[in-house]
């Protein structure tokens, strides 16, 4: 059967300077086209600017949801972000697509910080990789038991 | 230069009136995976799920595919669904699988009214936008009061 509805969502993180990250996110689906940009200050991860552009919406009542982005300024990317994002951009006056893309952009910021360390670990031999992951788990205990690879019975957790 | 990027692609395939399959793909600098989630629209229940990890970071990661079956029986209109998927599929399996499944579900919630509206138009029923939104908000528990488009009660009432 033919696919009746398609969604494509992507985000990119660019390090603009020592003190700034720029995140750009896009959702393009059968009824919505939304682009979002956040400027994030380092190292505290405060969103210093936020904008959005709509090119396609499902209904006329959705046409100004890009204005919701103004409320993101001053928000810090950290614990409790989902609740904050839903509170300021979701709910009965808001838009779940805007919240979705906002959360994806913020998630990408966090993932961008873990990438360099993981790239270094993955370059090693099998034994070096195991040591690298164990070291990472020692210094980031919150990662322990966060997935199957870091479960109690995983070889990567041996000795921890 | 882009330091990190991630893409998710979801296709919603309707298999007759009683089944929908959500095809999801995730690709980022470290991970690549796909899932197929089968949902029955009347009861909004996940009745089948499969997945494949294509690129990952540790040799333990592919075990997460075996955890996907915990999603079978979960209902999309359960207010605690996201939390369950994050805990049971994410923490016990893989958080990226959990994020992809949640994206599939979110896409389905956006897709359902669009597909219903298209079906009405296809059968010659013309409904004004506001009338359709009201009709859909009253009919569909997944959309009802989810956002400004499907609020059941007008502001100030």
What share of the residues of chain A does DSSP label as strand, in percent?
Answer: 25-35%
**Major sheet description of chain A:** 4 strands, antiparallel
Which oligomeric state applies?
Answer: heterodimer
Count of discrete alpha- or pi-helical segments spanning 4 or more residues of chain A: 3
Shape of chain B: elongated
Largest interface: A-B, 55 and 52 residues
**What fraction of the residues of chain B are assigned to beta strands by DSSP?**
25-35%
Q: Can you list the strand order of the major beta sheet of chain B?
A: 1-2-3-4
Q: Can you describe this structure?
A:
The complex is a heterodimer of chains A (160) and B (157). Chain A has 160 residues and is an alpha+beta fold. Helices cover 31% and strands 27% of the residues of chain A. Chain A has a four-stranded antiparallel β-sheet with strand order 1-2-3-4, with helices on one face. In chain A, a hairpin with a 4-residue loop joins strand 1 and strand 2. The mean pLDDT of chain A is 93. Chain B is an alpha+beta fold. In chain B, strands 1-2-3-4 form a four-stranded antiparallel β-sheet, covered by helices on one side. In chain B, helix 1 crosses helix 2. Chain B is elongated. The N and C termini of chain B lie far apart (50 Å). The interface between A and B is large, with 55 and 52 residues.
Q: What are the key terms here?
A:
heterodimer; A: 160 residues; alpha+beta; 4 strands; B: alpha+beta; four-stranded antiparallel beta sheet; 3 helices
Helix-strand layout with pairing:
The complex is a heterodimer of chains A (160) and B (157).
Chain A: E1 3-15, E2 20-29, E3 33-41, E4 46-56, H1 81-89, H2 96-122, H3 126-139
Antiparallel strand pairs in A: 1-2, 2-3, 3-4
Helix pairs in contact in A: 1-2, 2-3
Chain B: E1 2-15, E2 19-28, E3 32-40, E4 45-55, H1 81-91, H2 95-122, H3 129-139
Antiparallel strand pairs in B: 1-2, 2-3, 3-4
Helix pairs in contact in B: 1-2
């Amino acid at each position: 059967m033919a696919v009746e509805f398609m969604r494509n969502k992507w985000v990119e993180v660019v390090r603009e300077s020592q003190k700034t990250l720029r995140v750009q996110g896009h959702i393009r689906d059968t009824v919505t086209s939304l682009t979002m940009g956040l400027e994030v200050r380092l190292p505290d991860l405060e969103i210093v600017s936020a904008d959005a552009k709509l090119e396609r919406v499902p209904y006329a009542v959705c046409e100004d949801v890009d204005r919701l982005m103004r409320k993101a300024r001053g928000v810090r990317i950290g614990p409790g972000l989902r609740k904050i994002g839903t509170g300021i951009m979701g709910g009965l006056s808001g838009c779940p697509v805007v919240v979705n893309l906002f959360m994806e952009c913020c998630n990408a910021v966090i993932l961008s910080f873990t990438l360099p360390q993981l790239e270094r670990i993955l370059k090693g031999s099998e034994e070096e990789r195991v040591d690298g992951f164990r070291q990472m788990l020692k210094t980031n205990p919150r990662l322990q038991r966060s997935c199957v690879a870091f479960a109690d019975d995983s070889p990567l957790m041996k000795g921890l | 230069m882009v330091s990190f990027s991630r893409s998710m692609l979801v296709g919603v395939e309707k298999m007759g009136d009683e089944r929908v399959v959500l095809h999801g793909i995730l690709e980022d600098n470290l991970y690549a995976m796909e899932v197929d989630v089968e949902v029955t629209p009347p009861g909004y229940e996940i009745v089948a799920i499969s997945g494949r990890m294509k690129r990952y970071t540790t040799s333990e990661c592919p075990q997460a595919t075996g955890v996907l079956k915990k999603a079978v029986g979960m209902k999309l209109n359960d207010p605690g669904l996201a939390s369950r998927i994050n805990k049971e599929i994410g923490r016990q399996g893989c958080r990226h699988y959990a994020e992809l499944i949640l994206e599939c579900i979110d896409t389905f919630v956006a897709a359902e009214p669009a597909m219903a509206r298209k079906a009405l138009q296809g059968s010659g029923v013309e409904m004004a936008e506001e009338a359709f939104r009201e009709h859909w908000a009253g009919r569909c528990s997944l959309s009802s009061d989810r956002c400004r488009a499907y609020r059941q009660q007008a502001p100030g009432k």
